[in-house]
Specification:
Blueprint lengths: L1 H10 L6 H17 L6 E5 L2 H16 L6 H9 L8 H9 L15 H14 L9 H21 L4 H34 L2 H6 L8 H4 L7 H8 L1 E2 H4 L3 H8 L7 H16 L2 E4 L3 E5 L4 E2 L15 E2 L5 E2 L1 E2 L2 E2 L2 H5 L6 H6 L3 H11 L1 H7 L3 E6 L2 E6 L7 E7 L11 E6 L6 H8 L14
Parallel strand pairs: 1-4
Antiparallel strand pairs: 2-3, 3-4, 5-6, 6-7, 8-9, 10-11, 11-12, 12-13
Helix pairs in contact: 2-14, 3-5, 3-6, 3-11, 4-6, 8-13
Length: 436
Amino acid sequence: MIDLYIAKILDACTPCTGEKRTEVAESINELYAMFDLSVPLIVWCDGPLQYTVLPSILHWAAHERSGIDKVSFLRNLFKPPAKKTSRSHLSVFFQLEKLPPIISSPVNATDLQLDAFLDKAELLFSTQIPRMGESLNARLMQRVQRSLSTRLCDHLQGSSNEKFRNDTDIILRRRLAPFFSRLRNISDALVLNHPLQRKLFRVENDMCPATEAGIDSKIVPRMILGQSWGAWDVFFLSTYDYARSIDLVQYSQSEDKELTLWMKLLAGGLAYLFVENVCFVFSYPEKLALDQGLQNHSETGPSIIFADGVKVFSWHGMVVPEIVIMEPAKLRPASIDDEPNIEIRRIMIERYGWEKYLRNSKAKLIHQDEFGKLYQKLVPGDEPIVAVEVVNSTAEPDGKFKRYMLRVPPNITTAKLAVAWTFGLSEGLYLPDVES
């Protein structure tokens, strides 16, 4: 039953649109009401870039005090890249239309419109860098992890229930925690490598908000994700939700209501940045392809597609360049050897074909005898690839004899031992009378 429950959790991790968005908005408003806060402006973010850049711009606009010309800085920031404007870059501009007062076109906004935007930013943001939303998030942490969790845990007392809770918690943490953590790490990497983020938080930029605030520019995106209330923080409540779903326990009306609220938020977005007057919601991707181990994986296309157009290509949890998935035949031994990441290099070799890689990378012949030829390819930072080339003793219809490459452990040093190993034999026991 727990497998069905996990599948239900993952199936709910979809973009927040339509009725689902209405439900999530109601849950957010209800959450703010718990802390006697007014209904917030909800900003729905279609990807990691929007989720980190928008709060950063607003927060900077509200608190920058160096005396620089903010309007000029914003105009320069909103200027599209000279070479190519990506959809994800423009999506940040379009999102500003959702922040009152509306800027019909951020790229061509007038000074008056930008001034109005700056005034609104000051009204919306009352916290200080780098404590964006920290006080509210700390209160949420207190309520959920110490208050709600403790109260729900009290319902699972007794030896049998405690065993259930511990066993279920272990299973859910093993299955769900890596899934949500990977999405967070992928989002983090996407933002750090994006030109707009580098433009906003470039250290050498004299008007850089991060530099002005005395912050290392590399931590700004991580700071926002770190101050966020993400699925990685809430999923542990699924243990209590699962107990409720199988009628093992019955919570009080208030406990049941609050647990339901958090489970709706878990299904509604990957992360939330709760600030006193604004709530930023980081929507789940439009496409999320997984392997059986719940790792991001697709052999035929992107494993992740965010609504803002950003695509991620993955192979069993490892993010790889697009060419590795879409055009592996175009890989070249030189580019494979130049890849500094060992895991990505192994995937590149797998996709290119290790036999093809050996033949085209001029592997070294280290031994040969009547049983075959033994080749070795040294791989920087990794164990060498060793394979034995053998000839099929039966001729093909055209009279030619087909050659095969059989990969063997890297410690094998003779062709005979390599062939013997493929039969599960030692070199001494391998005495073939007839070769097939």
